[in-house]
Every structure is written in structure tokens, then in C-alpha cells.
Amino acid sequence: MPSYLRPHLRQLAGYLPGEQPRGGRFVKLNTNENPYPPSPLVLEAIQRCLDGEALRKYPDPQASEFRATASRVLGVPPEWILAGNGSDELLTLLVRAIVPPGGTLVAPTPSYTLYQTLAELQDARCTLLPFDDEWRLDPRRVPQGASLTFLPNPNSPSGSFLSPADVATWPTPLVLDEAYVDFAPAHGLDLARATDRVIVTRSLSKGYALAGIRFGYLVAHPAVVAELSKLKDSYNCDVLSQAAATAALADQEWLRSTRAKVLATRARMEKELAGLGFQVTPSHGNFVWCRRFDRPVRPIYLALKDRGILVRCMNYANYGEGLRISVGTDPEIDRLLTELASVLR
Ligand SMILES: *Cc1c(COP(=O)(O)O)cnc(C)c1O
């Protein structure tokens, strides 16, 4: 490795995303993509951009149309909204803006491991707060002087959820990562509206079935949005993704009906997986976290992969391993359950 690269970068392993095999070879239940196609209005909006005039020009750096639509749908003024190239970009911007090198970033565990990677990239420390057996966290364990805390709600891989009243007791500055909020019983936008010390990030990847276009947004006090805007690439969201995200948010009826289907399948998965001997955490996301104490789960993951079904096997220090299985269509989940029963026989 060339020695002119910064040492903290050379030592870093980097974030390891879930496998993304191309083609339709697998039933893909490993990265929490929505199993249903996005709203037809999204496809029409992208079609309308496919002319030379729209593609010749730079996109709107402020994503104004998206922010106007999001403002109407969320009941939040547009100055409180910042669009990003996936919510991951917004998480990166927040760390760069708030956590100095040598500072402390706080995140729960087991959780989204990108937070730790972002701390390492910033040459900052990361303090991990362990969940207890009931998937509760103790906010009093956030160290004094921490620069920033990330709280994904619902959490991944557990699918567990903290009520807004719980979240309101947390030390700030606090980022509520609401990537899975579209499947949850409540949200934290009121907390972000009440103080400039709470920021909510959202994703179009899961709830709106747009993981392929890369679009997310955050809701924060306009003074925070203004500072983060200086840090972002001028043209961080392209013409096609802005059109797609705007059409997606405008179609709340699509979201309602898709959520209902995902939640029904999720309930069935929880029951059937428990029946197959898994310890299942009740989920508020579009995935189910299951563990076993009678046998290791990695061989189950490998056997499923052999049979063309991809799930995520995750292993956390001081916790152990489990399988995170995304909610698929009903036929996909039928296949998963049949193959699992056969693997476990
Ligand atoms: C998927 C996910 C994200 C990233 O979403 P993108 O908008 O696709 O970048 C962020 N946080 C959590 C907890 C996620 O699971």
C-alpha cells in the first residue's frame, strides 16, 4: 500500500456490504430490498427524463421539487429537508460535519456496522452500546463529551423499535436513522422539529423499493441543513433519482398498500420461523432476525445459498451470530420455509 495514503485509512478494513449477485439466480433475502417493484408513477417520471434536454443539463443542486413534495407529505417546511445520494451519503456528511478526528461517535450493537466504519474513516473513536436481552439501551451509558450518537430506529438486524418517548430521553446531538421507518409504528420527526440537536435520516431504498437509484433525505433544523449543504457535492443527486424519488413520495397510496403486504408476510415469517425452532425477535422492519442456541446458523446460511436462497448471516462480538432474513413476496417466503425445513431435517 503506498505510504502517502493516510495511515488511519491504510489500517481500515472498510464496510462490507451484503452480496449483490447479478441476474435472477437467487431468491434474494439478504439486503432488505423491497420485494415489490416501485410505484408505476416512478417509472413514468424516469421515462419523462429520458430526453437529451433533461440529461444534457446539470440537476437541481437543491432537489427543490423533491423537497417541495416531501414537505407536503411530511408536513415539514422545505428548508428542513436535505436530499442525499442514499441515506448513507447523509450519514457520511453528518460524521464529517460533527465528529472531529479523535472525537467519539456512539452507536448501538448489534446494529448497522457502517457507523463504526464512518468513525474509522474520520479517524475518530467509536463507542458501542450493547443492547440488553429485551433490545433496550441505556442512554446513561453514552459517554460524556461524545460528539455524536447514531440510533437506528427500527434497528437492524434486530428489527427492534424504541418509542419516540424513549428516544426523547437520549443525550444529543443525536441522529435517528429511520431507514426502516416505513414499516414501523411511529417516527421521530417531531423530535427533530423540537430541537436543532436531533436529526432524522430517511431512505427511499427500503420502503419505496428504490435501492437501485440511491436517494435519501434528512430532516433537521434549517441552520444544520445550511451547513451540511456546504459539505455535500453540489450535484449529489442526479436528474433521474430526483424525478424517481419525487414521484415515489407523492404516491403514498402505493406505500400504504405495499407496507400492508410486507407486514402480513412478516407476521407469517415470524410465526413459521419460530415453529422451525428459531428464536425470533418481533420485527418492526422489512426483515426478521432469528437465532438458534441448539446449533450454529452459518451452516444453515450456506445450505440455503446452495439451494439458491440468499439470506444474511451476521456475527457480532460479545453477542454471537444470527440470520437476518428480508421479507420477500409470499411465493419467495414459501420457498424459503420449504428449503429451511429440509435443511433442518
Ligand atoms: C439500508 C440502510 C441504510 C442505507 O440506506 P440507503 O438510503 O440505501 O443508503 C441506512 N441505515 C440503515 C440502518 C440501513 O439498514
Descriptive account of the structure:
- With 345 residues, the protein is α/β, with parallel strands linked by helices.
- It is built from 13 helices and twelve strands.
- It has helices spanning 7-10, 40-49, 52-56, 64-74, 87-98, 114-121, 164-167, 189-194, 222-231, 239-250, 252-275, 298-306, 330-344; strands spanning 27-29, 81-84, 104-109, 125-130, 148-152, 174-177, 198-203, 216-219, 279-281, 287-291, 309-316, 320-326.
- The strands form two sheets. A seven-stranded mixed beta sheet has the order 2-8-7-6-5-3-4, with helices on both faces.
- Strand 5, helix 7 (164-167) and strand 6 form a beta-alpha-beta unit.
- Helix 2 (40-49) packs antiparallel against helix 10 (239-250), helix 4 runs parallel beside helix 10 (239-250) and helix 5 packs across helix 6.
- The chain is globular.
- It starts with 6 loop residues before the first helix and ends with a helix.
- The model has no long low-confidence stretch (mean pLDDT 96).
